[in-house]
Amino acid sequence: MFSRNVSAIKGVRKTIEHVGCRNALKNGEILICSSNQRQHVGRPRQFHWTPVNSGAFAKNLFMGRLIKEDVFPYPEVSVEKYQEITELCAPIEKFFKEEVPSKEIDLAAKIDDKTMQKVKDMGLFGQQIPLEYGGLALSNVEYAKIQEYTSYDGAIAVTLAAHQAIGLKGIIMSGTEEQKRKYLPKLATGEHVAAFCLTEPSSGSDAGSLRTRATLSPDGKTYLLNGSKIWISNGGIADVFTVFAREEVAGNKGGKKDKISAFIVERKFGGVTSGKPEDKLGIRGSNTCEVHFENCPVPVENMIGEPGSGFKLALNILNNGRFSMGASGGGIIRTLIGEVVEHAVTRKQFETKLKDFGMIKDKIARMAISAYVMESTAFLTASMMDQPGDKDCSIEAAIVKIYSSEACWEHVSQALQILGGLGYMKDYPYERYLRDSRIMMIFEGTNEILRMFISLTGLQYAGGEMKESLKKLKSPGSNPGFIWSSMIDRLKYRLGMKKDMLIQPGEFGIHPTFKEQKEQLERCIGTFYYVNESMLSKFQKDIINQQLVLKRIADIAIDIYGMTAVLSRATRAKVNGIKNNDHDHLIATVFCNEAYDRVLENVKQLTLAPDHNGDSMIERISDEICENRGYVSAHPLTKEY
Question: Model-level pTM?
């Protein structure tokens, strides 16, 4: 079994088509989109969060390791910093709760000029732009906190995110000083709006197949851009676009290679046209349209980064903003909890208040649990990203995005269920929340693609560390001592005599009241290592094609990171005596108990995959439907034999 793992590791590195988190092939290896090249754009004063050390916390989980210093104790701010954040957010919260005409924006499918100007006047178009260019220079934690309030109106939230989380982010991350001085001041005030142009009719999740082309003029001073982009947020209102296009660049061994470069394109350059605004299910007030480039002249000095480096830049940009979805989703659910509870404590059925029915209690409690997990993972990840140094939070950010988008969709739906007919009516905001939240599982990387990214990135990391051990396992006759100790380790683990990592109570540990949950987390992490090794051994190079296996591996990683963040936060609440910490304890206990059960079930299914757990039959059903171009089974009333 062990001898097959070496080739499996090589197979993991060979391919994955990925955009959303936009992973792809480069030199035969998985391109890992990380925050490694991200510049710290916080305030001049250091943002004091607990230091983070490893720079690859989630990756280490795949090796059965929990780097305690990365996550314990849960990060916290000083009283002064908390007051500063509160003062920053207070007018924003008031504006979005009391002044934004969200219903009118949704019906008109357009943000009115007065509201848009107010958003600009509040500085929200320059949240993470450095101070020297006229921005607010917010840290990732501060940015996430503001997303809790901007999420009250999905259309405005998406407009702002498309502008700064992706539209102008490339200039901050990889732009020259001249580019920053030229573009960022007007982008910070909202005088200019930015958009991110990557997706094309022929390339959605597979960004590597884009066709827009940049051709250098004979005098070497200008690129001519030709191509079309689709579903571009802010595409019809943007003045500045970050555009990704193919060009011929010099190869390492001479000759020319076709690679992707990034360009800053101004609408006023000419040759830029926008299609009609798309009529969308949700986030209707945000502008989404096609953008076409026809012989659009772009000065060579408007290239971002080096020629051919655009693909990696796109990956890094997209990874940068995903973590904030946890804060957005948490803000939405917390708001809905208030609305739902008000209804549940006043509405009666069968002479009983709704709040006293068991199934209603279940829905309300689960809304709160999910909001707690969203917040815990989002702000833990944001604090990691805010620390100086070479940090790769790409897996953590993808985990936050997946969990938060799916939980938000589920619980907005459950809120409508509690509200009944009232929730279904357009006179109330709840059905708009439902429509707006659906996009979260699609944009900035579909959740299916992100699950592939989490699994394959983690397996690649683990495989690299396993290499030497696997070489020994491949030649058992030459390494009898190593083989014997490996077998003993596995036997001890199965008997509960060995733990791969220990989390001790104390400064960097879990509160003693979570003893059972601590042991659950330890077992999950240890089991995760063995199941990863087993899957690499079982499927070898074909692991890249086993999407149902990779989905379960990703789901285990999501639950483990969620457990870690929740236990860390609840421990801090206990140790510091934070208000209502007993309530935190209840939430953490329920989530961890259920996450533990999910992990064990996923491990069980992985050991049976694919022929003994139904996976192969599921795939066969789908194949037969696709071959038939529709539903295969005969209608129950048919008389045909």
Answer: 0.88
